[in-house]
């Protein structure tokens, strides 16, 4: 079953998801015959609408396999985390989506009143440090935040080693960073930096100096960060570990740094939209995401850290226990998200 799952990746990665806020598409269908690992699994059918900020290369193989195994037709709507969460909020009276998949769990928590609590059948197999005690969201993968740099633009030995190094004047205008109002991962990065220097005036003083070094360049989406660094548009960028590792694995001349002050490894998650039109199919999809097959796939193919207890360590990368982490305040990140975004926006616009 696993062999069949991973074997379809090469062809699937040729399928491009139409990216952008509110872009809608029918997920790819499989018309090939043969064993897709569904012989012992009943096909219940039905439909499912997903809202997802994930990259196409992550979405496509997982959605396709879910369709093959269940017979459920998936409609994918892609966009940035912030825009899609606002869409869920706007549709609250008459929900159009079923599952919100990915985006930092702290961002999902901030919108928890729009999600339906669900305890996955795989709950006992998940690492407890990543599980939401209230069951509003289900963890998908643990995502350390890193500094990514281009080896052709950054001389050996001059790589930033810390968050504080990002304030060096030599990096002014050369840092790729996404707008935390639009990107869930960027918001997590903002809170990580605040935590490293103090969630009070000291932390915000650091953020003000960091923004000065951005020199007015704030990107509209997280995907533009790692792409911008790899394409030599920026010397360095703040991004997800798994995104940077995909470029490293692909042979790009980039490197990654785990900041010396500590970073975060907040999971991204999936949540069922309250009042979802296809509730049973939504539950099936949540269970599927944290099942052993999908969790093995994301480790092997995407270098994402599994949230399962029985997951094997990913070879060739720093082990989780060896990454210095800040004491990330999840409740602060979720409950103060609107305030933190407004504060950051004032700094960006020069109002503060």
Automatic annotation (TrEMBL):
<dbReference type="GO" id="GO:0015888">
    <property type="term" value="P:thiamine transport"/>
</dbReference>
<feature type="signal peptide">
    <location>
        <begin position="1"/>
        <end position="26"/>
    </location>
</feature>
<protein>
    <submittedName>
        <fullName>Iron ABC transporter substrate-binding protein</fullName>
    </submittedName>
</protein>
<dbReference type="GO" id="GO:0030976">
    <property type="term" value="F:thiamine pyrophosphate binding"/>
</dbReference>
<dbReference type="GO" id="GO:0030975">
    <property type="term" value="F:thiamine binding"/>
</dbReference>
<dbReference type="Pfam" id="PF13343">
    <property type="entry name" value="SBP_bac_6"/>
</dbReference>
<feature type="region of interest" description="Disordered">
    <location>
        <begin position="25"/>
        <end position="46"/>
    </location>
</feature>
<dbReference type="InterPro" id="IPR026045">
    <property type="entry name" value="Ferric-bd"/>
</dbReference>
<dbReference type="GO" id="GO:0030288">
    <property type="term" value="C:outer membrane-bounded periplasmic space"/>
</dbReference>
<feature type="compositionally biased region" description="Polar residues">
    <location>
        <begin position="26"/>
        <end position="37"/>
    </location>
</feature>
<keyword id="KW-0732">Signal</keyword>
């Amino acid at each position: 079953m696993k062999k069949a799952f991973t074997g379809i990746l090469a062809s699937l990665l040729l399928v491009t998801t139409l990216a952008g806020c509110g872009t809608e598409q029918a997920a790819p269908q499989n018309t090939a015959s043969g064993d897709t690992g569904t012989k012992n699994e009943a096909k219940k059918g039905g439909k499912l609408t997903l809202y997802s900020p994930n990259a196409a290369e992550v979405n496509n193989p997982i959605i396709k396999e879910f369709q093959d195994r269940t017979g459920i037709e998936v409609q994918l709507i892609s966009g940035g985390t912030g825009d899609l969460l606002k869409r869920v909020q706007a549709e609250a009276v008459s929900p159009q989506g079923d599952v919100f998949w990915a985006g930092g769990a702290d961002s999902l928590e901030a919108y928890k009143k729009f999600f339906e609590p669900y305890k996955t059948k795989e709950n006992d197999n998940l690492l407890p440090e990543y599980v939401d005690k209230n069951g509003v969201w289900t963890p998908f993968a643990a995502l350390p935040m890193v500094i990514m740099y281009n080896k052709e633009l950054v001389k050996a030995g001059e790589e930033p080693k810390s968050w504080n190094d990002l304030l060096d004047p030599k990096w002014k205008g050369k840092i790729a960073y996404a707008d935390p109002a639009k990107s869930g991962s960027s918001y997590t990065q903002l809170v990580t930096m605040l935590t490293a220097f103090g969630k009070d005036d000291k932390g915000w003083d650091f953020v003000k100096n960091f923004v000065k070094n951005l020199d007015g360049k704030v990107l509209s989406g997280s995907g533009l960060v790692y792409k911008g660094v790899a394409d030599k548009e920026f010397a360095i960028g703040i991004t997800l570990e798994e995104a940077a590792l995909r470029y490293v694995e692909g042979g790009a001349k980039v490197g990654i740094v785990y900041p010396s002050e500590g970073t975060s490894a907040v999971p991204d998650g999936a949540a069922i939209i309250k009042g979802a039109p296809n509730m049973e199919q939504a539950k099936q999809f949540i269970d599927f995401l944290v099942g052993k097959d999908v969790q093995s796939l994301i480790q092997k193919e995407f270098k994402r850290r599994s949230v399962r207890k029985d997951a094997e360590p990913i070879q060739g990368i720093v082990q989780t226990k060896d990454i210095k982490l800040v004491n990330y305040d999840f409740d602060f990140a979720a409950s103060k998200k609107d305030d933190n975004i407004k504060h950051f926006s004032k700094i960006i616009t020069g109002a503060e």
